[in-house]
Specification:
cytoplasm; about 200 residues; DNA polymerase, domain 1; Holliday junction branch migration complex subunit RuvA; globular; RuvA; 3 domains
Length: about 200
């Protein structure tokens, strides 16, 4: 198995990054929050999880080990595959997932596309004893006003949008930021606003 990948970021798409390792470009499926932290040409180290299927080998990349751990753990619940697990870590922080499961918070889990009421209840039932406790720190997406603006802007530029369009998209989602902005959610909203334009 491949535990992590370190190399130059050769390309970024809406849902993946290509990292050059020893002359080989490895495509890593990543969440928008992880992609927002990467820059084409920069060196990156990403924890990874490899999913082996009969017809494919897929490598998933993560912002940190905590996100990777939650991704792998939620897949042990019945009905949760890698795509749904990736959606979970894209929408909720690792602590958010732990808190939702520990406190039987079905509503929070149903915010994830693909998880309904029964699916959320099943995940809680199957993982409650294994998920662990939240670290108590604020979620990685909670940052000061200028910091979230910079991160969303850089994420959009890293995905190939020009600075002017990125500025407009940041302004378009500024009203959604609130007191504790979630960079992942704001980046997704900015991408939606650009796709409508």
């Amino acid at each position: 198995m491949i535990a992590f990948v370190r190399g130059h970021v050769a390309a970024l798409t809406l849902n993946s990054a290509v990292v050059e390792v020893g002359g080989v470009g490895l495509e890593l499926m990543c969440t928008p929050g992880t992609l927002a932290q990467l820059r084409t040409g920069a060196t990156a180290t990403l924890p990874t999880s490899m999913i082996v299927r009969e017809d494919s080998l897929t490598l998933y990349g993560f912002a940190d080990e905590e996100e990777k751990t939650v991704f792998e753990l939620v897949q042990t619940a019945s009905g949760v595959g890698p795509k749904l697990a990736q959606a979970i870590v894209a929408v909720l922080s690792p602590d958010g997932v732990r808190n939702a499961i520990a406190s039987d918070d079905v509503r929070t889990l149903t915010k994830v596309p693909g998880i309904g009421q029964k699916g959320a209840q099943r995940i809680i039932l199957e993982l409650k004893d294994r998920i662990g406790v939240a670290s108590g720190t604020s979620a990685p997406g909670s940052v000061a006003d200028t910091a979230w603006r910079d991160q969303v802007h850089q994420g959009l530029v890293g995905l190939g949008y020009n600075a002017k369009d990125a500025d407009k998209a940041v302004e378009a989602v500024a009203g959604e930021a609130g007191a504790a902005p979630d960079v992942r959610a704001l980046l997704r909203a900015a991408l939606r606003s650009l796709s409508k334009a």
